[in-house]
Amino acid sequence: MREILLLMRVHTRNTLGFNKAIHGKSRGEKTKMVLFACLLALVGLLLLGVSTLYSAMIAYSLHETNAPLILLPAIMMAVSSCIALFTTIYKAGGILFAFRDYDLLMALPLRSKTVVLSRICILYSMNILFTLVVMVPAGAVYAVMVSPPLWFYLFFVLTLFLLPVVPILIATVISTLVTAATARFRRKNALNLVFTMTIMVAVIFGSMNMGAAMENIADFGSALMRIVDRVYPLTGVYTRAVCQGDLLSFALFVGISLVAMAVYVWVVGRKFGVLHSLLTGVGARSNYKLTRLKQGSPGAALCKKEVRRYFSSPVYVLNTGIGLELMTVFSIAVTFLGTGQLEEILDVPMLGSLVGSVAPLFISLFVTMTYTTACSISLEGKNFWLLRSLPIATRTVLWSKIALNLLLILPVVALNAVILAIGLRADALQTALLFFTPAAYALFISVIGQLLNLLFPNFGWTNETAVIKQSAPAFLTMLAGFLGIAAVGFSLFAFRQYGLPLVLAIATLALFVVAFGLIAVLHTWGVRKFEKL
To answer: Which tens digit of pLDDT belongs to each residue from 59-80?
Structure first.
């Protein structure tokens, strides 16, 4: 156990930059780490508040429809399990097998099972925070409204920390099977991406279909319970154990979680080296032919390098490209379902009349999920010195990374703008806003992500997931994007009497001004910071 805790501590300190802040002599690094920790604590409190509000809303809805309140813990348990499942699928392979210090760890006097269990515990530690944020408020709301006996609190606490175990194991198995199935193909990364994104799209459409099917079922409570059980079969076992005090169900839930973990660690630990070689091996072409050398500008060459680096990493694409995928799903749904049917499915009054005016803001929300610049500098890793030594202007290097983000976003935005303009029968101003508002957010998120990555670089990572998904720049960039969406949304509400399209047009111009101001900062402070790294 001590060895596992040591491995986890080393990974956490390296991932979050604690070593640099604790042992470094720079007071600025320590100040940044303290401020970031305070910001994380604030965001955690806000998430707890939002989760509590949602749990209260669900409980109130169940009460109004005379549905059993036992559904609240069941629904939130299924939600937390689904979050653990789908956030682990695309990072499990990198954390469990494709970590950079594999050779170093395997050279230590450690058993393979110890290394495997430590990597599983790392995945667990990432997901238990989301589980606590979802389940603790749900349990509190349920306790207030139902006043359950004392055994509820005991079973709730004992099962709380086991909730993510089975979803994490399922996610690692899915990720391993997908990677193994595509390992022998030349374009294995592309096939891996296609498989994973297909699963995500199927889940999204399946969720929409289940929501629509609820309208045709008379017994709301039992129908919802059947749907939740279908999403995650262990939900029924958990509900009977925690909410009904069934000792057999409690023992079954705990037994399934612990036995599944033990079996997984035993199997993977025995074949860890073989699995690592299978999942991380790189094939080589045997029919290489020398062709004519092509010459281009330094900026174009750097941009091509960024594109190749991007598509060579499934984790990179999935984490920063999911927003573009959801954007397209949203546009197609609005166009083919129609605003009226969409209003009925989502049960949001007046949605149909508002979609045409706020659709640019919806698209912009998905744009803020694409933040390649927040990690592109850190991803250079130990090869950053090569980039710094090139006889190329610093601005050219920085803009090559911004260009990647814009090349990913703007063509997809243009396509979705055309789809929505046709589906919504938008006028000239609305059509222009469908493109220019998301474009303003694309420029804003690209530049601020670059600045934040310069402020919080991390070149000592051992797993690229650490800088793509778990780093301070990635978190702060997404937070800045959501705050930008919230600011414009508040403006639309506060000045709605002047007309939503006009207010949105003014807000878009203001966002472009902010983005160009950030570009000026990038050309001055950003260039100096890059040259000092």
So the answer is: 887 777 777 788 888 888 888 8
